[in-house]
From TrEMBL:
It holds the Pfam family FMN_dh. The lineage of its organism: Eukaryota, Viridiplantae, Streptophyta, Embryophyta, Tracheophyta. One of its GO terms (molecular function) is FMN binding. FMN binds at residues 78-80, 107, 128, 130, 156, 231, 253, 258, 286-290, 309-310. It catalyses: glycolate + O2 = glyoxylate + H2O2. Its cofactor is FMN. One of its GO terms (cellular component) is peroxisome. GO terms for biological process: oxidative photosynthetic carbon pathway. It is an enzyme of class 1 (oxidoreductase). It comes from Panicum miliaceum. Keywords: Flavoprotein, FMN, Glycolate pathway, Oxidoreductase, Peroxisome, Photorespiration. This is (S)-2-hydroxy-acid oxidase. Its EC number is 1.1.3.15. Glyoxylate binds at residues 25, 165, 255.
Amino acid sequence: MGEITNVMEYQAIAKQKLPKMAYDYYASGAEDEWTLQENREAFSRILFRPRILIDVSKIDMTTTVLGFKISMPIMIAPTAMQKMAHPDGEYATARAASAANTIMTLSSWATSSVEEVASTGPGIRFFQLYVYKDRKVVEQLVRRAERAGFKAIALTVDTPRLGRREADIKNRFVLPPNLTLKNFEGLDLGKMDQAADSGLASYVAGQIDRTLSWKDVKWLQTITTLPILVKGVITAEDTRLAVENGAAGIIVSNHGARQLDYVPATISALEEVVKAARGQLPVFLDGGVRRGTDVFKALALGAAGVFVGRPVVFALAAAGEAGVSNVLKMLRDEFELTMALSGCTCLADITRNHIVTESDRLRVMPSRL
């Protein structure tokens, strides 16, 4: 494998190890994959304004998310069907997150159940929720997550239908026969069968509730005491509605660029959302984070923390639990170095003045008129 020096290097290894259908499922985005590329490239257009001659001999990266203290503002995003990547799947990811003292978000479409993930030992875990047409299924899932000790619900709101992922259509994507969506075992929900295009798209069309609206956020609050994070917000308008409807937090996400193509990169949408939230709830970023510098840029723009998805799955495919642990360690080490070189000793030191965005540069350009 050679020495891995950054999290992106796991992707090439995963591509070699995984069957094409599984790799393409994890790696691909919607349609032209413009947003998929932009999720990364937008970070590269944000530059640093580091401060110097500050004592950075001690750096504190700890933070609190929804009242839970974690070691760093880097958490694990929900990614589906992790046993396609490695036999240990979500078990390995849960153990690595717990060892790093950070939060793991378990996908509704996990290949390990909430109970199985809880059985790996202590850890702070959130549960990502899709709302099914059958609300009894939703109630049952939420209650099981609560009983299993999960601490929050991350409600995904950008998937009334599945985005057009052309790699999955070409591959006729379907879950391998030895795996199941474990949270739905024993429920009469139909299976993800081979279809004329993507088996997952057909499954979603049959099961996921397209009528989902803000009233359902209110409904969820009546069936659980867990805080509800709204995942998939990228505009100020929806941020204000999230505040009005009692969301505990917002995750700025474009679903890993897998839903609507030509939406902005999450890092580009972040500041609009943060401003509209006015400090009334925490705003997190999910999408495109591959470096500690990315984490710093997100925090400088007002994020309370970031969630990392694909690097975790690729590292899981390459090296199992050790790979996931290494991704978290590398991002942590890079973030700590970025803080030191920017003159920040704790997260509160990271300010908007530490970065320059494209829009800042446009504003300070002298007029040519």
